[in-house]
From TrEMBL:
The chain crosses the membrane at residues 36-59, 65-87, 108-135, 141-161, 181-200, 239-260, 319-337, 343-361, 389-409, 421-440, 461-486, 498-520. The keyword Nuclease does not apply. Residues 272-298 are annotated as: Disordered. This is Transporter. Keywords: Membrane, Transmembrane, Transmembrane helix. It comes from Streptomyces albiflavescens.
Amino acid sequence: MSSNAGVSAVSITPVVVRLKLSLLRNGLRQSAGRRAAYVTSVVLVLLFAALQLLGLIALRGNAHATAVAVLLVAVLALGWAVMPLFFPSGDETLDPTRLVMLPLRPRPLVRALLAASLVGIGPVFTLCLLIGSVISVAHGAAAYVTAVVAVVVALLVCVALARAVAAANIRLLSSRKGRDLAVLSGLVIAIGAQLVNFGAQRLGSAGGLSKLDPVADVLRWLPPASAIGAVDSVSEGSYGVGIAQLVLAVATLVGLLALWSRHLTRLMTSPDGSTVQAAEPAARERGSSGLGRLLPSGRTGTVMERSLRYVWRDPKTKAAWVTSLAIGLIVPVFNALQGTGSIYFACFAAGMLGIQMYNQFGQDTSAFWIVAMTISSTRDAYVELRGRALALLVITLPYATLVTVLTTAMLGDWPKLPEVLGLSFALLGAMLATGAWSSARFPYSIPQEGYKNVAPGQTGLAWISIFGGMVSAALLAAPVIALTIWGNVTADGDEWTWLLLPLGAGYGALITVLGLRLAAPRTARRLPEILAAVSKG
């Protein structure tokens, strides 16, 4: 028994590595398009990695090279830590529950999965950046020897960190509700892009790279960035400090491997409670909620509650709302912080949330047939569309107002607040009107699995529905836009532009009602076509 276990422990690593290569190879065999996409992504990633490597080498001798290298490795480690949470289905070998039925022990499995984790584009990209980082800070033979160890340790820490995070959360990530965590990726990407842009502008101002030094002084003691700090310390002759930083990185690696092994043991020996029925919570869920008591009675309130529950529970709907909420706030606020913003950027809030009115029936997917069974007349269709529009307004109106007031406060341009609010309300009304009509005329399916938002073959419908509708909304809002422009170019415009608030709000409400009235008959007539389109995915 012991000899067989020893043989198994020795042989499992190459088997798992070959398994990873087989998964990759078989995935590429599925279609030529997938192979082309993979090859293209590999070329682009390697090209970017090569440029980063050359850039880091060019920093060699710069006074702030250490700060850049340490900060870069810290960001790399953060990326490795959060990617399994946002993209749990990106790597099949990230899910150790697939191996629980095999007679494997956790420690050999940890070694095997760690080796398999080094196969892929991500580890190669990370390796290039780590090599460039140590080259930019290493000076002297002792530093280069330390750099070799630092690169290996830092790479293993990044990989082990990703695996430990994935193993600790795999039960959550593999469940239906756990997949909702991926919706945060839109928010993180949106905020991260603005933070990078904001940071780049700050670095380009007075002080430049010197502003990174205080942050780097802290991060150089946090693994795996401490491994890069060790190379710099040895280069400066501080061998004791360098050894301490390197030991800290090695200790972190050992701790992550131990944590990973512990989670693997728990996964392979503990029962999965995801199928345990929770009768009492389910019974409570079926009861009347506080939300339902606040909404109107009848079909309107029912439709509103259903729509709001989709926003909270459906992963795809939640992802769209989170991204829209984030961008609607980030664009005006970050531009105001940079001193280049305009108060009219606050209209992004209404515009981004107004997009959610498009393809209303596609958000229901195949479940739309239940709704279709309750629509037997134009009146039913109108009440259905009205309830969906009101549900959107419950969130959009206060949010757009809040963003506009916040942007106005940051810019100190209070006299323009009424006209911007009026313009936002008019734009929102126009988008609700065109969104209702577009939902009936150009419906398309949203796949529930994966990260695609349009079913194959319906991309053209999606483009026509959203972008065509947005252009039509701009045309519908043209009267209020023209009044806003005229009020700003005339000499006495400031005396009456406050009237744009009631005018914009009234115009938006009027155009919304007209849009719903026009969309209702088309919706009632095209129910079979709409049901076929939204059920395609």
